[in-house]
Amino acid sequence: MGAVITRISILIIFAILMANCQSKPSSDQLKNVGNAKSALKDYKSAIEDYDAAIDLNPNDPRLFNNRGAAELELKNFTKAIQDFTQSIELDPENPKTFSNRGLALASIGNLKAALEDYSKALELSPKDAKIYYSRGSIYIDLKDYSKAILDFNEAIKLNDGDASYYSSRGLAKAQSKNFTEAIIDFTRAIELKPEFGLAYTNRGLSKMMSGDKSGGCEDLKKAVSLGSTSANKVLMEQCK
């Protein structure tokens, strides 16, 4: 981790030096400085660089997308949506921008609009597991569990090594009262990520709902040991 931060720090210093080599840095140089600062999570300062870059080149969709991503990290969702929308107007073929706007829309509770953006992103990039996962998560929020499961299936086909995909599919199956298959998915998630407290919590609840109270309590105890406060509440109520 330290080596990664060191490399990023070198990149940001290099980018700043490059920008300072000229009295008037180019929009690309300012973008690179902003990107380096974003990598260091200095989003407010990064936005200032993107602002300056946009002043120089207001027709570059990357600048609006990058500034929107920084605003999104700061939870300035309205500003983020505005930037992503401007980026899409300049370049309507970038799936990442639609996905980013989908996340921002979901963050303010506009789930139907988020669903539309994720669907458009998948039209442009049909082999992106993360976008299937994101759209599946929206379907869960909309309580459309069958469609959620289909999206998680696709995500897993494209990347079967992500514990979150199995855990989320397990949740959709549990919500559909298919506890046996849900337990299988939560178990796979735990195999991939042994310290996955949420997967232990949901597997424990699924075991209880399927009649295995003892096994459920064991999972909840494990989840509590991993820091799950929600598991602790159920443990206190159901596993006395």
Structure overview:
This protein is mainly alpha-helical and 240 residues long. Helices cover 79% and strands 0% of the residues. The radius of gyration is 22 Å and the shape is elongated. The model has no long low-confidence stretch (mean pLDDT 93).
Structural class: mainly alpha
The H-and-E topology, N to C, reads as HHHHHHHHHHHHHH
Question: How many strands appear in the DSSP assignment?
Answer: 0
**In angstroms, what separates the terminal alpha carbons?**
42 Å
Main pleated sheet: none
Give short descriptive properties of this protein.
14 helices, 240 residues, 79% helix, 0% strand, mainly alpha, elongated
Strand and helix layout:
Layout lengths: L1 H19 L6 H13 L3 H14 L4 H13 L3 H14 L4 H13 L3 H14 L4 H13 L3 H14 L4 H13 L3 H14 L4 H13 L3 H13 L3 H10 L2
Précis, in short:
The protein is mostly helical and 240 residues long. It has helices at 2-20, 27-39, 43-56, 61-73, 77-90, 95-107, 111-124, 129-141, 145-158, 163-175, 179-192, 197-209, 213-225, 229-238.
